[in-house]
Amino acid sequence: MIRTIDLSMKKVPRQRRAEVTVEAMIDAASELLSTLPYDSVTTNRIAERAGVGIGSLYQYFPNKEAIVARVVAYWVQDMLEEVGNALAASTQLSLAEAALAIVSTLFEVVDRHRVKVRLILEVIPFALQIPAVANLPRTLVMMSAQAQASIRDRLNFARPEVASYVLMVMTRASIIETVLHCPPHLARPEVERTIADFIARIMVGNTSPLVAA
Amino acid sequence: MIRTIDLSMKKVPRQRRAEVTVEAMIDAASELLSTLPYDSVTTNRIAERAGVGIGSLYQYFPNKEAIVARVVAYWVQDMLEEVGNALAASTQLSLAEAALAIVSTLFEVVDRHRVKVRLILEVIPFALQIPAVANLPRTLVMMSAQAQASIRDRLNFARPEVASYVLMVMTRASIIETVLHCPPHLARPEVERTIADFIARIMVGNTSPLVAA
Amino acid sequence: MIRTIDLSMKKVPRQRRAEVTVEAMIDAASELLSTLPYDSVTTNRIAERAGVGIGSLYQYFPNKEAIVARVVAYWVQDMLEEVGNALAASTQLSLAEAALAIVSTLFEVVDRHRVKVRLILEVIPFALQIPAVANLPRTLVMMSAQAQASIRDRLNFARPEVASYVLMVMTRASIIETVLHCPPHLARPEVERTIADFIARIMVGNTSPLVAA
Amino acid sequence: MIRTIDLSMKKVPRQRRAEVTVEAMIDAASELLSTLPYDSVTTNRIAERAGVGIGSLYQYFPNKEAIVARVVAYWVQDMLEEVGNALAASTQLSLAEAALAIVSTLFEVVDRHRVKVRLILEVIPFALQIPAVANLPRTLVMMSAQAQASIRDRLNFARPEVASYVLMVMTRASIIETVLHCPPHLARPEVERTIADFIARIMVGNTSPLVAA
DNA sequence: GATGAATGAGACTTCATTCAT
DNA sequence: CATGAATGAAGTCTCATTCAT
């Protein structure tokens, strides 16, 4: 039922020359996707921009979906790397400080890659079928869990898994929503601080009798 | 830069007969959008399903976008109405109870309209340019504010506007994300309760010195 | 396992205007098939020659195969009509005379439609999957049987069905083969007479003890 | 007007290694042709299956037609050899016995090579332009004439050449047609016997005054 | 000699939109 | 007003063939 995009290549480039070509095609696709309306990004234009024949593109990618998916997968990989690096730097903090650190980190990364995030979440029709994207929620939960192991230990949720999930969804969604669609009359830095604050409240509140039982 | 979809009709139906025709076209479009892959919803098919000639469709709508936008606008209107009704019924509750009530309400409505929500947020490429959709965040904030006036008064955020915005974004986003993409190994009711709980924590936490001061 | 070509039209022409268009397309296809190498007969060229847009072609035919199949079906229909008429005129003859009449008839028709016969039997790759073509053997047997009812009664084959089949295959194949590929050093009229003679021998021979038992 | 396929090789393999390579390419082509739909047999696939680079293929064959033609030529050569051997074993028989022997022989060979026969006669578009195929009728006539020299002498056709030609066409065509397209409701062995019987009638009939005179 | 990356003409097909009837 | 036949630009993708390495 749930189709998954095929990321495999028709032919794996063996020679250095071919590698360069494939790279050029992916770069071209990436640039065009970031520039033109999605439906204007045609395979012909990608090939043209990459400076290769359309036939070459189809030697390595079985169809249009495949190359777009590949590009998106790279984007996600890059962004996750950045997030990972940043999170790794935020250990050894108090709960509130950690919340702010994580939120700031995500905010910064999402903001810098605003265009790509929008493409993935709101433009490319099958983006959610791309494995790297479909796994994002889980990946992010795992990453922050690892990075914040010390914090997690201090938390004491009745259902840690559910709590982590909701916490991450709220964090991620509010950040992305703010970056992409924040009403202009609200000051972004303030929104950012508020998000962090709310996240902290949730974590702190955990110590209250309301939840942990 | 930010294009807005033209919802105006080429010609306003004057006769009763014409009104019925337009309605049939919108119903047909609505059904097809809910049924087929987006790219399979062609204007010709809409006309056919509505039992009118393709020419008639273009007498009332300037292009494909227009009729799709119109359909989406109706969807949004309907859903907002339901949300409004439900919220109105949840006054006079404690903070925690109110949080749970609101979350449950939204959950239920979003879940029932799952297909349409997904179409709006993840499928129809220009949905976010449709005024009714673009205004959704503000509208929801206002609606819940009105409905929960008593609660809002008991809250005491430093920046009420920012707080409301973030609160609503977190609520909305986590609900929608859960409805559309909740990992199967998490029990939905539990997720729902957790969301409500977290929202309550944020509101309750407000009384703590951590924030308001 | 045995695929059959779909001859149905995507849309049946309702208006007179549409009928004319479809006719033009079929005529154009027929002419091009009789003129160009098969692979050069493209749908675009057919539309161009018919003086219509390529889109119009695809309104009525789901694909290239369909229009080619339609053309072939018409060809077969026309030829069968001619054969039928000619056979009807050859009743009331002696066995030998009837054999000659039938062979002559078929020879004449096949020869006049030489180009089309070649296209059907040797060029169009899927011709044998077209119902009208696939049924040809049976159809021909039936037609000649009807026309030559009086003769058939005088024959007395042990297995009439098998005998008819073989008789017709031999007749048809030798005629077509001769028309299409007769070695130039053999005089065609003589070949024709020989074929008729051999067919007669088979029928006459039937009276010999060799077969009928 | 009548184009003939170029069977010549661009370069004649001089080294033993090259010979092996060419053989591999021909074998690969033969297997693919016998296995896949004709349009799926691409030069690239042939090279791949042969375990050589596509470039190598074009070192020895000027184009796709050439290699296909070469394959077909080999097929025909093989089949003719089998026919020859079989016919050689059927001398010294009575007319009727000889007819049955020849027909049986051809039937068996054609049936065993059914797939290749179909490819040659109904699938490969230019097969009839391949010399080996174009000469088949003459070749078969000559072969059976040689093999059945004693019989031929006993026959006494007015125009031996024409008679042989027609006799062979009828035999060949009815056999092939039966193997490839015999209606399922007819028992093949019976059809086979009937063919042989009819051929015998023709030959025997020769002694009757109807013809020879 | 062998390779295989690269090519690009051109095939089929779709669908939003127009306009004569 | 309504119709639906007609349009054609533009998209995806294939495959025989070349040529630099």
Any overview of this molecule?
Four copies of one chain form a homotetramer. With 213 residues, chain A is mostly helical. Chain A has two domains: 16-62, Homeodomain-like (Arc Repressor Mutant, subunit A, Orthogonal Bundle); 71-204, Tetracycline Repressor, domain 2, CATH 1.10.357.10. Chain A contains twelve helices and no strands. Chain A is elongated. The two termini of chain A are 40 Å apart. Residues 207-213 of chain A have low confidence and may be disordered. Chains in contact: A-B, C-D. The structure holds a DNA duplex (21 and 21 nucleotides).
Spell out the key features of this protein.
homotetramer, 213 residues, mainly alpha, Arc Repressor Mutant, subunit A, Tetracycline Repressor, domain 2
Q: Alpha-carbon distance between the termini of chain A?
A: 40 Å
- Class by helix and strand content of chain A? mainly alpha
Biggest beta-sheet profile of chain A: none
Supply the number of helical segments of chain A. Answer: 12
Spell out the helices and strands of chain A N to C.
HHHHHHHHHHHH
Helix content, binned percent of chain A: over 70%
Strand content of chain A: under 5%
Oligomeric assembly? homotetramer
CATH homologous superfamily annotation of the largest domain in chain A: Tetracycline Repressor, domain 2
Task: Using the 3D structure, state the CATH architecture of the largest domain in chain A.
Answer: Orthogonal Bundle
Strand runs of chain A, count: 0
| CATH level-1 class of the largest domain in chain A | Mainly Alpha
Biggest contact: A-B, 41 and 43 residues
Count of separate structural domains of chain A: 2
